[in-house]
Write a structure and sequence with these properties.
The chain is an alpha/beta fold. It has helices spanning about 30-50, 70-75, 100-105, 120-130, 145-155, 175-185, 205-225, 240-255, and strands at about 60, 80-85, 90, 110-115, 135-140, 165-170, 190-195, 230-235. The longest helix is centred in the N-terminal third of the chain and has 21 residues, at about 30-50. The chain binds iron/sulfur cluster (2 copies).
């Protein structure tokens, strides 16, 4: 699969590898040749530079509590987590894109995302809900698409209720269930997790992972006595300001705020 259907149609998810022609899907000769030229240009960039630039936001694993379940390695969309013979994981920092999926799914909470740790996100949740939490909707919005939608709603001067308190995450898959639980424990009226539209997640499959986790989260918060219907999930492109504004209006109406 290409890195991004629109933003990186010739790039493979790992830097320095390009895809073109029938390696992607059946194509006519002319189109394959054009893509081949494009792919050659793309791979020539790291070849000329003789290095690739890694992300500053990367995963870091503390093996102290690791149970060698291998989940992080299986889930990483970039194959950036390798396991050794004892099934213990290591992050290949040059491949890690910092989506945070592994950290949110690790059952032993061994994984920290540098610059986006659970503690930092938890502190943001607490701060956002410090005053009048019962009137607030806590939103986790992905950096690449949903946050663009929020900005678009702003620059388009769309009117929507002011109940939302938004926390930026790199990917909707970065949001662990414990953050959602914390928001409800603090008394949030509702929680929204917003990510990229399918199938254009910036991190390939982050939105699919998020969707599955939200279904699980609804069951978990339901068992803890919170209303699962107060947990919303929306997919919003960076150009879709109206969708974000409408979601806010719908949530406020539904939650009777
Ligand atoms: S998901 Fe967590 S516990 Fe499982 S192997 Fe990875 S780091 Fe260890
Ligand atoms: S943060 Fe994302 S890219 Fe990096 S190791 Fe974890 S799942 Fe893979």
């Amino acid at each position: 699969q290409e890195r991004h259907i629109k933003l990186g149609p010739l790039d493979f998810p790992a830097d320095g590898i390009a895809l073109c022609g029938c390696a992607k899907n059946p194509k006519i000769y002319k189109e394959s040749c054009e893509e081949g030229i494009g792919a050659a240009m793309r791979v020539s960039i790291p070849m000329k530079n003789e290095h690739i630039e890694a992300e500053g936001i990367v995963a870091d694993i503390d093996l102290t509590n690791c149970n060698a379940c291998g989940l992080c390695s299986k889930r990483c969309p970039y194959g950036a987590i390798l396991v050794n013979e004892e099934k213990l994981p290591t992050v290949v920092k040059a491949l890690c894109k910092g989506c945070g999926l592994c950290a949110a799914d690790c059952p032993k909470e061994c994984i920290t995302i540098v610059h986006y740790s659970d503690e930092q996100l938890m502190a943001q949740v607490d701060a956002a809900l410090e005053e009048e939490p019962g009137k607030k909707i806590l939103g986790f919005v992905c950096h690449w698409c949903a946050l663009g939608g929020v900005d678009m709603a702003g620059v388009s001067r769309l009117q929507y209720p002011t109940n939302a308190r938004l926390i930026r995450v790199m990917c909707s898959a970065r949001v662990p269930i414990k953050l959602i639980e914390r928001a409800f424990e603090k008394g949030a009226a509702g929680v929204l997790v917003a990510g990229c539209e399918f199938p254009t997640c910036h991190y390939i499959t982050g939105n699919y992972a998020c969707e599955t986790r939200i279904k699980r989260a609804k069951k978990i918060i339901g068992k803890k006595g919170y209303d699962p219907e107060k947990l919303w999930n929306v997919w919003c492109s960076a150009a879709d300001g109206p969708k974000f504004a409408n979601t806010m209006r719908d949530m406020v109406k539904d939650l009777k705020l």
